[in-house]
TrEMBL record:
<dbReference type="InterPro" id="IPR058692">
    <property type="entry name" value="Fn3_SaeA_2nd"/>
</dbReference>
<keyword id="KW-0326">Glycosidase</keyword>
<dbReference type="InterPro" id="IPR013783">
    <property type="entry name" value="Ig-like_fold"/>
</dbReference>
<keyword id="KW-0378">Hydrolase</keyword>
<keyword id="KW-0624">Polysaccharide degradation</keyword>
<dbReference type="InterPro" id="IPR003961">
    <property type="entry name" value="FN3_dom"/>
</dbReference>
<dbReference type="InterPro" id="IPR036116">
    <property type="entry name" value="FN3_sf"/>
</dbReference>
<protein>
    <submittedName>
        <fullName>Fibronectin type III domain-containing protein</fullName>
    </submittedName>
</protein>
<feature type="compositionally biased region" description="Basic and acidic residues">
    <location>
        <begin position="304"/>
        <end position="316"/>
    </location>
</feature>
<feature type="region of interest" description="Disordered">
    <location>
        <begin position="382"/>
        <end position="402"/>
    </location>
</feature>
<dbReference type="Pfam" id="PF25833">
    <property type="entry name" value="Fn3_SaeA_3rd"/>
</dbReference>
<feature type="domain" description="Fibronectin type-III">
    <location>
        <begin position="40"/>
        <end position="136"/>
    </location>
</feature>
<feature type="region of interest" description="Disordered">
    <location>
        <begin position="260"/>
        <end position="316"/>
    </location>
</feature>
<keyword id="KW-0119">Carbohydrate metabolism</keyword>
<feature type="compositionally biased region" description="Acidic residues">
    <location>
        <begin position="26"/>
        <end position="40"/>
    </location>
</feature>
<feature type="region of interest" description="Disordered">
    <location>
        <begin position="25"/>
        <end position="50"/>
    </location>
</feature>
Length: 556
């Protein structure tokens, strides 16, 4: 694009300034430097202004290739051409300045010039006009049964405040929706229907220096008139698996139910009407979406009564809660109103992992993996007696104990005497929160009992020199390999290694009351002797133990 005469003169001046600067540097002479201050610089580029709250930020691009120091002078211009007023904003070497004293509700333009050496000034560059239009303050809306009321505080510079209403969506601007009459500080809109959702846009209007009305963008509020929604009074907890809980409630005819989780009980009585912000003070909203309860399968005859059955018209939600004590509060929300319902206290603790058990005669040793939050565990056990595929719990022999995490680490596990019968063992974690304890869901394991195999020794043969050994189990079990041992001496032997094996009964499965027998002939000894039974392997007596008869039968 060809230059005009003014651009050409400015370009020639810049070239002259560069030549003069080079001459000064080469000659080391300061006298020619006076001529640099008279060279007109190029004007700034890209000047623009933007509103930031009640301030205006003006920015521009630096002049290209300045020869010498360059600053930028900014002036605010308001009013019409004949009565325009200019106010200096500032002069700086940077490329951005903030006008903190710009008038409200008035069109303002900003002129930026480049100043070369403090003397030569470029042509001004002007921004597009901007207007500061603050919004109203302290805007509040309240929906009644048949009306919507709003209030606000208008800025002092505003000439009026307009309000527009639209059903189902926010008004985009003037003329979009229905205008609502205001008194400058609020309105009372009675032209509404119950349970309809309305949006209001409230705009502050200002008069510019040109006599034109200029409005703010506006603030939007939502309201739903009608009676307050009913509170949820039957919030219940139906399941707790240690990692999450399931809550149920009856679906209210109006409004939606929000579940809020807090560390403390609700501060309100059920039925209290509060604002949404007040309800949020109880705690954050649960992230799980509610879902309808599944309909029960129809059955012939009268409708059965199910334990804990939520029933029709119910909703449920599964919540993931942190370990400890939580208070879940049901809040029914309709428009700008929230009605507090029932709150339930829920204690959660993560379960133990990898529960394992090992029997040592009448003692049982347990091991598990601790969750990080647990400080202790409750261990309980109940004997079970065989009764087919499942077991029934016996009336006696139950017990419980508390095991701290420190005690578990010191002992390398948990061990307690639980008898020789089959036993059902459960472990529940304990999490302490604010002086309260939350007990987790039980993790259980069934420990098989240790069967007792009794044996008898009978004399046999014509000369009564032989013996018949009979073994019988009190319950079904795996009989270990059993050795019939003869030992001489006055002292009764305590293992098979202290005598001679006369016969061996192979390991086998025994039913309760089933008997196995073996016939042996002890050698003739010069003194007293013993005939006894021992497991062939020293450590093969965990599943069953041998019960010896009277000493009279064992002595030969």
């Amino acid at each position: 694009m060809p230059w005009n005469a003014q651009d050409r003169r400015r370009h020639e001046g810049e070239e002259a300034a560069r030549t003069l600067t080079a001459a000064v540097e080469a000659a080391d002479d300061e006298a020619p430097a006076d001529g640099l201050e008279d060279v007109e610089p190029m004007p700034p580029r890209g000047a623009r202004a933007r509103v930031d709250g009640r301030d205006v930020v003006v920015s521009w691009q630096p002049v290209p290739g300045p020869a010498g120091p360059v600053t930028y002078r900014v002036v605010r211009r308001t009013g019409r051409a004949g009565t325009a007023r200019e106010v200096a904003v500032g002069e700086l070497s940077g490329t951005e300045i903030t006008d903190t004293e710009a008038p409200v509700g008035t069109d303002a333009r900003y002129a930026v010039v480049a100043v070369h050496g403090g003397r030569a000034v470029s042509e001004p560059v002007e921004t597009s006009p901007v207007t500061i239009t603050p919004e109203v303050c302290d805007l509040r809306v309240r929906a009644g049964e048949a009306s919507v009321t709003a209030s606000w505080q208008a800025p002092a510079e505003a000439v009026r405040v307009d309000a527009w209403r639209r059903e189902g969506a926010a008004p985009r601007g003037p003329g979009d929706g229905v205008r609502v009459e205001t008194d400058g500080a609020g309105f009372r809109d009675r032209d509404v229907r119950p349970d309809a959702e309305y949006f209001y846009r409230v705009r502050a209007v200002y008069l510019t220096s040109n006599g034109h009305a200029r409005a703010s963008e506006g603030l939007v509020l939502r309201a739903t008139p009608g009676p307050p929604p009913p509170p949820v009074l039957d919030l219940t907890v139906s399941a707790d698996d240690g990692t999450g809980v399931r809550v149920h409630w009856t679906r209210p005819p109006r409004g939606r139910v929000v579940l809020r989780v807090g560390p403390e009980p609700s501060r309100w009585e059920p039925g209290a009407v509060v604002g949404p912000d007040e309800a949020a003070a109880h705690g954050p909203e649960a992230v799980r979406e509610p879902e309808p309860e599944p309909e029960p399968e129809p059955v012939p005859g009268p409708e059965p009564v199910r334990e804990g059955d939520p029933g029709p018209g119910r909703e449920r939600a599964e919540l993931l809660l942190g370990a400890g004590i939580s208070h879940v509060l049901a809040v029914t929300v309709a428009g700008d109103r929230a009605v507090v319902g029932r709150s339930v206290r829920i204690a959660t603790a993560p379960p133990v992992g990898g529960l394992r058990a090992e029997r040592f005669d009448t003692s049982v040793r347990l091991g598990w993996t601790w969750p990080d939050e647990a400080a202790a565990a409750l261990v309980s056990w109940t004997p079970e007696t065989p009764g087919g595929p499942e077991h029934t719990r016996g009336p006696d022999g139950s017990g419980s104990a508390r095991c701290t995490r420190r005690q578990y680490g010191a002992d390398g596990g948990f061990e307690a005497a639980m008898g020789s019968d089959p036993v059902r063992v459960s472990v529940r974690t304990v999490v302490v929160t604010g002086g309260e304890e939350a007990v987790g869901a039980p993790v259980s394991v069934t420990v098989p009992g240790r069967a007792v195999i009794s044996y008898r020794v009978e004399t046999a043969g014509l000369l009564r020199r032989e013996r018949v050994v009979h073994l019988v189990a009190d319950r079904a079990c795996a009989m270990p390999e059993v050795s019939v041992v003869y030992a001489e001496g006055e002292v009764q032997p305590h293992s098979g290694a202290q005598g001679r094996v006369l016969a061996t009964l192979p390991s086998r499965r025994l039913d309760a009351g089933e008997r196995v027998s073996v016939r042996v002939r002890p050698p003739r000894g010069s003194g007293p002797g013993w005939l006894m039974c021992f497991p062939a392997a020293a450590d093969d007596d965990r599943a069953a133990r041998l019960r010896q008869p009277s000493v009279k039968e064992l002595r030969l």
